[in-house]
Design a protein that fits this description.
mainly alpha; 5 helices; 0% strand
């Protein structure tokens, strides 16, 4: 990340006399607050993607288990997350919380820029 965020022309520009990239990166981040929101958003994006992948992998395993066990009947299952009667309300609440979070991050970014 230091290579992407810190201006440099030679490797010596990155190290600034330090031998450890972890220490110099932490120093750089603490002295340049405008990169923190970007890094936090990147971390959040990766966490969301990981959770998404984990969720659908577990759902796939669950469906495979049901098929292998010979369960017949409907294609949906009681513990399927998408079978809830009030899914529309849950989804709407989730979208509102995402929008609120985005608004907070945008206002913090604007404040940091100004």
């Amino acid at each position: 990340m230091l290579i992407l965020l810190k201006p440099w022309t030679t490797p010596c520009d990155l190290l600034c006399g330090c031998l450890n990239f972890t220490d110099i990166f932490q120093t750089f981040i603490h002295s340049n607050d405008h990169w923190k929101p970007l890094l936090n958003n990147m971390q959040l994006l990766h966490e969301c993607r990981d959770n998404h992948d984990d969720h659908f992998e577990s759902q796939s395993r669950l469906r495979t288990t049901y098929r292998q066990s010979g369960t017949q009947g409907s294609t949906t299952h009681e513990d399927d997350d998408f079978e809830s009667d009030d899914i529309a309300e849950e989804l709407l609440n989730h979208l509102v919380s995402i929008d609120d979070s985005r608004s907070i991050h945008l206002s913090q970014s604007q404040t940091a820029i100004n």
